[in-house]
Amino acid sequence: MKFAEEIVVEEFLPTVRSLLAGELRAEGLTQSEVADVLGISQSAVSKYAHGDVTTNDRIAQDDRVQDLVNRLSEGLSSGDMSRVQALIEIEVCIRDLESPGSVLAALHEEAVPELAEYGASFRVHDPDSTLRSSERVLSSLRRGLRILENASGFASLIPAVGSNLVACLPEAEDIDDVAGVPGRIFDVKGRTTVPSEPEFGVSEHVATVLLAARRHGATATAAANIRYDTDLLAALEERGHDLAEFDEAGDVASSVGAAIETTPGATVLYQTGGEGIEPLIYVLGSDPESVAHTVCELV
């Protein structure tokens, strides 16, 4: 009797770790850094590097495994992907490869021939879990923030109250389902400064605008606020964006909702301010990266 988990431990993990260690080294990480990322010893990394660990060619040559290793090596080396997300992606890949006709299922059937008569797969982990979705949102948000940080001149678009780049879960209902930068993004001596890693539930204002827009038909999952300027609005309109104004002085959610209903395709919302209220522009988009690129094109 042999469990599928034994196939994973004996065949899949050594193969993926070996491939991933090699790719991370190729990305420029040191042996010590690779060990830290993978949660293994430096001696283990050395064994992988020198081919001293037995791997499975059928697993290594599977397209889904190769895609997994490429995504993980790129994300982990750049910092766009956390170790938690990497773990989730590996777990999901394992369950996918355990489905009928896939490589782990085939290896398991070869080890336990009696399984061949059963067509069922045993999916323990849900590929569409909230945890996986959350990590994907945070990963995308990190990439968007890196675009803003590296863009020359973005600091000039940051309003006095600060900017924020936010992104939400697919079925977002409230602020806890929206991730953003704690403390917002600020201009520090002409430099875009992101004070900390993105988290869920930390952005009230920009998150409220995004959620209100979505509740009234907008398909956007990300948004950013920048300073108000009629020239910026004109530039956005020239680039094909539909603009809609809302009243910041009233109930923001209701005002944004009314603006979206008036201009259903609006991807830029703005308010002209009032007593004690700074005028602002809000750019909506399908993901944090696209929003970041849109605002950076204005510089």
Automatic annotation (TrEMBL):
GO MF annotation list: DNA binding
PANTHER family in the cross-refs: HTH CRO_C1-TYPE DOMAIN-CONTAINING PROTEIN, TRANSCRIPTIONAL REGULATOR PROTEIN-LIKE PROTEIN
InterPro entries: Aldolase_II/adducin_N_sf, Cro/C1-type_HTH, Lambda_DNA-bd_dom_sf, ThiN
Protein name listed in UniProt: Helix-turn-helix domain-containing protein
Top-level division of the source organism's lineage: Archaea
A Pfam family it matches: HTH_3
Record-annotated HTH cro/C1-type domain positions: 28-48
